[in-house]
User: Which sequence fits this backbone?
């Protein structure tokens, strides 16, 4: 059997706080093969982003990480900071959640994209800027040479997200981590970004970890789905199998609350809540604060 490109084994993440140590991720394990896509799904606070930041070694100093994260046969947790810095942004890249805060507001778009090249390769600034314009064109930014001279506030939300994708792809990484890349976008632009990611993944034969709270979105881009609840993975399987025969009640609840064209207009959207011994969809107004903190898987 071929070795997976990314393998995570029994990953645990906790944070030291004034009130004691808080566990964010517990015994998480999964693998992503070359050119494969895993969708990591769960509600806010379930540990998805902490997992992705642990892979990139970007967690804050107070985080305590144990387990094993292997990329292309290398144990990432044992690499020296300089070794990890060389891998980050070249072999593996990340698209962050909110492009308006991730982009530098006082730097031109082209300079920010080119900066990723200059950090990893000894090339001239003109060469880096030319590559930036090329990759902006690849992610369907209109008039890329002109847009490269713009600042982030001059671009729409969808265009800023495309810039983030360009920055992540400019050094031809083997693994792309997309952390909620469509959350702040309207439905039409969201569909365009998902289609773009699918095309780029196939063109460059990328492996991808796609993180979202929306199981419907993940089903459009992922081969495999891992469902995360309260810091633990409660179910993993091929996307078709998860939708056809989900085993865990939380997964079934997530599927049942996906809005459809048959959703009755005027009724509040459902959410997932615990009722008795099963997980059932209920109206948003019926969910009490801190509800999921009381749920035992």
Assistant:
């Amino acid at each position: 059997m071929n070795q997976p490109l990314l393998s995570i084994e029994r990953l645990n993440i906790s944070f030291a706080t004034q009130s004691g140590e808080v566990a964010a991720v517990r015994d998480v394990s999964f693998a992503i093969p070359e050119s494969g896509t895993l969708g990591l799904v769960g509600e806010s606070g379930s540990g998805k982003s902490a997992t992705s930041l642990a892979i990139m070694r970007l967690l804050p100093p107070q985080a305590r990480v144990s387990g094993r994260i292997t990329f292309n046969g290398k144990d990432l947790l044992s690499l020296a900071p300089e070794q990890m810095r060389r891998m980050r942004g070249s072999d593996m890249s990340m698209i962050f959640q909110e492009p308006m805060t991730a982009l530098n507001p006082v730097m031109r778009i082209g300079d920010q994209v080119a900066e990723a090249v200059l950090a990893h390769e000894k090339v001239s600034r003109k060469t880096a800027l030319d590559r930036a314009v090329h990759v902006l064109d690849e992610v369907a930014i209109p008039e890329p040479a002109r847009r490269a001279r713009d600042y982030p506030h001059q671009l729409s939300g969808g265009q800023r997200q495309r810039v983030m994708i360009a920055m992540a792809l400019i050094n031809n990484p083997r693994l792309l981590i997309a952390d909620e890349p469509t959350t702040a976008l309207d439905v039409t632009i969201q569909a365009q970004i998902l289609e773009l990611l699918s095309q780029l993944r196939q063109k460059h034969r990328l492996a991808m970890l796609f993180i979202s709270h929306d199981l419907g979105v993940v089903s459009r881009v992922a081969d495999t789905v891992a469902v995360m609840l309260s810091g633990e993975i409660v179910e993993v399987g091929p996307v078709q199998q998860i939708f056809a025969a989900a085993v865990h009640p939380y997964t079934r609840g997530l599927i049942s609350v996906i809005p459809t064209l048959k959703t009755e207009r005027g009724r509040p959207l459902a959410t997932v809540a615990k009722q008795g011994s099963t997980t059932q969809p209920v109206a948003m107004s019926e969910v009490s604060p801190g509800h999921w903190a009381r749920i035992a898987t």
The chain is about 35% helix and 25% strand. Residues 275-297 have pLDDT under 50 and may be disordered.
